[in-house]
Design brief:
The chain has helices at about 10-20, 25-30, 60-65, 80-90, 100-115, 135-140, 155-165, 170-180, 190, 195-210, 230-235, 300-315, 355-360, 385-395, and strands at about 1-5, 35-40, 55, 70-75, 95, 120, 145-150, 220, 240-250, 255-265, 275-285, 290-295, 340-350, 365, 375-380, 385, 400-405. The chain is of the alpha/beta class and about 400 residues long. It has three domains: about 1-130 and about 300-315, NAD(P)-binding Rossmann-like Domain (Rossmann fold, 3-Layer(aba) Sandwich); about 145-295, Dihydrodipicolinate Reductase, domain 2, CATH 3.30.360.10; about 340-405, Alpha-Beta Plaits. The strands form two sheets. Strands 7, 8, 9, 10, 11, 12, 13, 14, 15, 16 and 17 form an eleven-stranded mixed sheet that branches. α1 packs across α12 (about 300-315), α4 runs parallel beside α5 and α13 runs antiparallel to α14. The structure holds L-homoserine (HSE). L-homoserine binds next to α7.
Length: about 400
C-alpha cells in the first residue's frame, strides 16, 4: 500500500479525493498497489465529510511521516505551495501537482531537486486539464524536433469567446455564466487577461524546447477588449477569434512566446475548438501537426489527470521519469515585436484612406461588416510586428483594433 497526502481541498483537491475513493479497485489494478490517502491538508474544517478524520492543518505532520511517499499539491498559488513542494522533494517524497503558477515560475528549480533526489515531480494536470499533453510531448514525440506550439489553453476564455461568436452574447454575461459553471479561476482576471494561458504556454514551451520560459518573458494580452463587432469582422474573414498561446523555436536557437487574441481562419482546426474545450497543436519535423483536444477545465477532468500522475508515480517509486528542462535565461525569449504575423487592422474611415493603406501596406484585403461605414478594416501581408507599427504611424489614422491572424 502506498500512502499519499493531499495538500488542499478545493475544487481539484476534493475531485482528487473523490476519484481515488471511487476508483479504488481500478486504480489498484493499474498501480499494482493500493493508494491510500493518509492526510488532507486544509486550513478549513469539513466535519460533515465521511473522510473528515483525514484532515490536518499541520504540514509538518505530513512532511515528517516517512510512510507518505507521494504528496499531491492542489492548493494553487506560489505561497506556501512552493515551500511545501520543495520540502517534500528534499525529504524523499515525490510530488504531483496541478499548480500551473508554481510550475511556470519554479519548474526548473523543482525538477532539479526532484532529479537530485531521484524522485518524481509530475504535473500533467497543469496544462489542458484532463488532456494528456505533457507526457506525449516528452515521451511519444521524443524522436521529433518540435518547433512550434499553438494552443487554446484556457477553458473560461474559450467558453466566453464561443458564446460571443455563436450566440452574440455580451462579454460580461458569458463571463458570469463561466463563473457559475465553475470554470473560472478564483480571480477571473487570471483567465480573461491571459495570465492562466501565459503560465501554460510557459510550461509547454519549457518542455518542448528544453529551457525554462518564465511568465514575465511572455507578451500577454487577454480578451477584455474583444467586441461583437470584431468577431463580426473575423467571421466575414472566415475565421473565429480565439485566445492563443503560441511559442516558436527560431533558427538562432531562441524562441518567441506570447498569448494574445487572434483571428483563427476556419481552415485551421483550432478555430473549431469550442466552449470549455482546449486544444494544443504541436509541430514537429518528423510528425508534422499533432493536435491534443479535450476538456481543459473542471473538477473531474483535472482530478483525473492528477490521479493518473499519482498512479505513474506509484509505478516508478524508485525511478525518475522523463520530464525535465534546464533553467532559462534573460535573452532566450525574443521580443514579440520581432515575430512575423499578418494582422487585421481596423481604422476610422476618412477620405482617401483606402489608397493610403494600399500605398503603405501593399497588397491588403479589405473586410467589411454591416453598419461599419465609419470604419475600414484590412488584412496586412505577413510582417514583423514592429514594421506594422511603423506603417501604422505613417498612416496616422485612429486605430480601432489590431488583431493577429494565426497561420
Ligand atoms: N481557469 C482555468 C480555465 C482552469 O478556464 O482553463 C483550468 O486551468
Amino acid at each position: 500500500m502506498v500512502q499519499v497526502a493531499v495538500l488542499g481541498h478545493g475544487v481539484v483537491g476534493s475531485g482528487v479525493v473523490e476519484v481515488i475513493h471511487q476508483h479504488k479497485e481500478s486504480i489498484y489494478k493499474k498501480a499494482k498497489q493500493e493508494i491510500n490517502i493518509k492526510y488532507i491538508l486544509d486550513i478549513r474544517e469539513f466535519p460533515d465529510l465521511p473522510y473528515h478524520n483525514l484532515f490536518t492543518k499541520n504540514f509538518d505532520e505530513i512532511l515528517n511521516d516517512e510512510e507518505v511517499k507521494i504528496v499531491i499539491e492542489v492548493m494553487g498559488g506560489i505561497n506556501p505551495a512552493f515551500e511545501y513542494v520543495k520540502k517534500c522533494l528534499e525529504n524523499g517524497k515525490s510530488v504531483v501537482t496541478s499548480n500551473k503558477e508554481l510550475v511556470a515560475q519554479k519548474g526548473a528549480e523543482l525538477l532539479k531537486i526532484a532529479n537530485d533526489n531521484n524522485l518524481n515531480f509530475l504535473f500533467e494536470a497543469s496544462v489542458g486539464g484532463g488532456i494528456p499533453v505533457l507526457r506525449p510531448i516528452a515521451q511519444c514525440l521524443a524522436a521529433n524536433d518540435l518547433y512550434e506550439i499553438n494552443g487554446i489553453l484556457n477553458g473560461t476564455t474559450n467558453f466566453i469567446l464561443t458564446k460571443m461568436d455563436k450566440e452574440n452574447m455580451e462579454f460580461a454575461d458569458a463571463l458570469a455564466l463561466a463563473q457559475k459553471l465553475g470554470y473560472a479561476e478564483r480571480d477571473p482576471g487570471a483567465d480573461i487577461d491571459g495570465i492562466d494561458s501565459c503560465r501554460k504556454i510557459c510550461i509547454l514551451a519549457s518542455l518542448a524546447f528544453g529551457k525554462h520560459v518564465y511568465p514575465n518573458q511572455v507578451y500577454t494580452e487577454g480578451i477584455r477588449n474583444i467586441t461583437l463587432e470584431q468577431k463580426e469582422y473575423a467571421q466575414n474573414f472566415n475565421g473565429a477569434i480565439k485566445l492563443i498561446g503560441r511559442s516558436v523555436l527560431k533558427e538562432n536557437g531562441k524562441i518567441s512566446a506570447a498569448v494574445y487574441p487572434a483571428i483563427v481562419p476556419y481552415d485551421n482546426q483550432l478555430s473549431h475548438v469550442e466552449d470549455v474545450f482546449n486544444a494544443i497543436m504541436v509541430r514537429g519535423d518528423a510528425i508534422g501537426d499533432v493536435m491534443f483536444y479535450g476538456r481543459g477545465a473542471g473538477k473531474l477532468p483535472t482530478a483525473s489527470a492528477v490521479v493518473a500522475d499519482v498512479i505513474d508515480c506509484v509505478k516508478h517509486l524508485s525511478a525518475r521519469k522523463y520530464l525535465s528542462w534546464s533553467e532559462g535565461s534573460e535573452d532566450y525569449v525574443e521580443n514579440e515585436e520581432k515575430s512575423i504575423s499578418s494582422f487585421m487592422i481596423c481604422v476610422k474611415n476618412q477620405n482617401g484612406i483606402k489608397d493610403r493603406i494600399t500605398e503603405i501596406f501593399g497588397n491588403v484585403e479589405f473586410i467589411t461588416r454591416k453598419n461599419g461605414e465609419d470604419e475600414i478594416a484590412f488584412v496586412t501581408p505577413k510582417e514583423q510586428e514592429y514594421k506594422i507599427t511603423e506603417k501604422l504611424n505613417l498612416l496616422n489614422a485612429a486605430v480601432l483594433f489590431k488583431l493577429h491572424i494565426l497561420d
